[in-house]
Amino acid sequence: MRVGEALRLRKSDIRPTEKLIYIRRSKGNKDRRVPLSNALNKLYTDYCAGFQAQNYVFEGQGGG
To answer: From the DSSP assignment, how many helices (H) and strands (E) are in the chain?
Structure first.
């Protein structure tokens, strides 16, 4: 995953039940799916428990 893709990652793009990450507008404006490993899934749930983001996974102090 590229840095720009990670910054545009929304909470709705990560699907833990399907074990998939949907990357939108990737290189060449194409969408793609990336498998979500069990270890990353656990890290993501722990991250969400400690930090309540509203839209994006990685938000700034003022959101966005």
So the answer is: 2, 3
